[in-house]
Design brief:
The complex is a heterodimer of chains A (394) and B (244). Chain A has 394 residues and is mainly alpha-helical. Chain A has 16 helices and four strands. In chain A, β1, α3 and β2 form a beta-alpha-beta unit. Helix content of chain B is 38%, strand content 25%. In chain B, the strands form two sheets. Chain B has a six-stranded mixed beta sheet, with helices on both faces. In chain B, a hairpin with a 2-residue loop joins β4 and β5. Classes of the chains: A mainly alpha (394), B alpha/beta (244).
């Protein structure tokens, strides 16, 4: 027993004591780990309904004046567009989001058509509504293809080849995948993994510092012949262990959930097997220690338990910064990004999920730089711990 | 033996301790008496190395606290002003945690804890979690964990604070027992009767300074007062902050 380092004694006590706290255990074993998989299920479901339903299902389109162009309407119906009665005030219906779009066929349509003049139909929509874009695009395509077909027939009827009016055609070669099309949603996902680490460590970071001071047990503890750094290391190890457990369970839950989701419908091949799990765990390991140390540092500054909770809740927004940057400005991944703690982990997790390769060098850079950051924050926290102010609660 | 020499400590512009020096000897109970805010707790905190004095020195059994604070802490058993317990652990587990931090062998730790649990009459609640403990039970547990490593020197900051009559009597008996075991017992109090009843030596502190340092009899003689109470008031200069 004598050979046991003091840090280990502190570590074992903190683990044992906190395992007896039901709320801490629930946060570590349930809330933290289930966050990422739950958000993932939401993302996948939203993506599936957006990508699949709109392409295969009959699309309802309110049409005004359908009786003015029966042939056009018939052609739309053949392209799986369902003709609906139009609202009284179509512009307003679109603005109020009652309708995605409205097609208006003016009364003069038939006359212009017969005369061979360009007949006009109006498409009423709101370009700022992103979710309506698929519908608008589909209807526009259907209308234009009918227009082109009719034009071709007219030219043919005059004994000419339709290719005269089409000097060239544009062929689309879209390189996007279902994953990249839902890029914003996917770049959010690593944030929830990292948030799992925050939630897993939060209770202990507070309990072992601000909590210990508030319940007046820090001063008696400091009277023992144990160096402050040993005390701190023991507490950090315990906090890190809980956070790491959260992350590990999160990865496991994520792997299980990922297998049962119909991601193949989207043409995705999610790489969430062993390789994914181990690699994510590897890059998360130094981050967990960094987060635990940051949380402990913030909690050591706080005068009370509640104040510590406030600081730590604010701290949770920090990992959101690289997430927002990466989803708002989806720039090309540069080598230096792996060196930035939080950002490096986000990139690695996103790439792994997409099935992209991450080189050992990039993994090493991510690990080493985050570990170095953790050491710097540790040194700062030790300095706070050595200060006289730490122990005094009144 | 605890020796304090010329201790100074200021917080900003407030001089909390302004030149305190005294000696607490083995086999004696030394009382640190003074009104609230006189600097007793700050003085004790410098003795048990939680704070560094701005000037002056602390020696415990001849070891300089500024040179080897860890060795000093090993020779001290301290009941600080803050005496919080870990409420999700039993009283025995609380004691055991400190025994491990004091690097006791497990069987030594167990025997020592058993002896303290018997001496402090804690058997009834020793294996209960400390959440919901009475003030008396909490103080007993805090004292047991502070003394588990059998220290030669014992520092108690207002040990009877918040205790009822029975618990206070038990605490005083326990302090006498520590003295009879040959230990150096130093405690602070703002209660005159307590200090008068227990102490071999009284150190009176007011406004961060030692205003009297003598045996109870000598204190009477020095101040020429008829009772100890009058002697204290004479030494401190006012009745403010003292309780009978």
């Amino acid at each position: 027993m004598k050979s046991l380092p003091s840090a280990l004694i502190v570590f074992l006590k903190e683990v044992r004591e906190n395992l007896r706290d039901r709320r801490t255990v629930i946060n570590t074993l349930l809330t933290g780990p289930l966050l990422a998989p739950a958000i993932f299920v939401l993302i996948i479901n939203a993506t599936i309904s957006r990508e699949l339903d709109k392409a295969e299902r009959a699309q309802p389109v309110p049409v005004i004046g359908a009786e003015h162009a029966p042939n056009l309407v018939e052609s739309l119906k053949q392209q799986n567009i369902e003709i609906k009665d139009a609202p009284a005030d179509p512009e307003r219906a679109v603005r109020d989001m009652d309708a995605d779009l409205v097609l208006r066929i003016p009364a003069e349509f038939g006359d212009s058509w017969k005369k061979g003049e360009p007949a006009q139909v109006e498409l009423i929509f709101d370009a700022s509504r992103r979710e309506a874009q698929t519908s608008v695009g589909r209807l526009r395509g259907a209308l234009e293809s009918y227009s082109q077909r009719t034009g071709a027939m007219r030219i043919l009827a005059r004994g000419l080849s339709p290719s005269i009016v089409r000097p060239f055609v544009v062929a689309d070669r879209d390189q996007s995948t279902a994953q990249t099309r839902s890029g914003t949603l996917f770049s959010m996902l690593p944030y929830f993994f990292i948030l799992g680490a925050f939630i897993g460590g939060m209770a202990l970071a507070i309990d072992t510092t601000a909590g210990e001071r508030e319940r007046q047990s820090l001063e008696p503890l400091l009277v023992n012949p144990v160096s402050r750094s040993q005390l701190l290391i023991g507490k950090l190890l315990a906090t890190s262990l809980f956070a790491l457990t959260s992350v590990l369970l999160g990865i496991l839950a994520f792997s299980v959930v990922g297998r049962f989701l119909p991601t193949e419908k989207l043409g995705m091949s999610l790489q969430i097997g062993f390789h994914f799990g181990w690699t994510v765990l590897l890059v998360m390991l130094p981050l967990v220690v960094l987060i635990a140390t940051l949380q402990t540092l913030a909690a050591a500054f706080a005068k009370s338990f509640r104040e510590a909770q406030t600081y730590l809740s604010l701290l949770m927004f920090v990992p959101a910064v690289p997430t927002m940057m990466l989803s708002l400005f989806p720039v090309k991944t540069e080598a230096w990004m792996y060196a930035v703690p939080l950002m490096g982990q986000q990139i690695v997790i996103t790439r792994l999920m997409r099935g992209d390769e991450v080189s050992p060098g990039e993994l090493g850079l991510c690990f080493a730089c985050t570990a170095a950051a953790a050491l710097v924050v540790y040194a700062l926290t030790v300095a706070i711990y050595r200060g006289e102010r730490l122990a005094i609660s009144t | 033996m605890i020796e304090a020499t010329g201790l100074y400590k200021a917080f900003g512009t407030v001089k909390a301790v302004d030149g305190v020096g005294f000696v607490a000897r083995d086999g004696e109970i030394t009382g640190l008496l003074g009104p609230n805010g006189a600097g007793k707790t700050t003085t004790l905190r410098m003795l048990y190395t939680l704070m560094k004095p701005d000037a002056g020195s602390v020696r415990v059994d001849g070891i300089d606290a500024s040179v080897d604070p860890t060795a000093v802490r090993r020779r001290l058993g301290v009941l600080p002003d803050a005496r919080g317990l870990y409420k999700r652990m039993t009283a025995r587990e609380n004691i055991d945690y400190f025994a491990r931090l004091q690097r006791l062998e497990p069987d030594v730790a167990r025997k020592s804890a058993d002896a303290l649990i018997a001496a402090l009459d804690m058997a009834e609640f020793a294996n209960r979690r400390t959440e919901g403990f009475s003030q008396g039970q909490r103080v007993k547990t805090a004292i047991a964990r502070a003394l588990v490593h059998d220290p030669r020197n014992v520092i108690l900051d207002e040990p009877t604070n918040g205790l009822d009559v029975m618990a206070t009597r038990a605490m005083r008996a326990f302090m006498r027992r520590l003295k009879d075991e040959g230990r150096c017992v130093l405690f602070s109090s703002h209660i005159m009767q307590e200090v008068a009843a227990l102490c071999d030596r009284i150190v009176v502190i007011a406004h961060g300074r030692v205003v009297a340092d003598a045996s109870p009899a000598a204190l009477l003689e020095q101040t020429g007062a008829a009772s100890l109470e009058d002697a204290f008031v004479a030494a401190i200069g006012s009745e403010e902050g003292l309780a009978a």
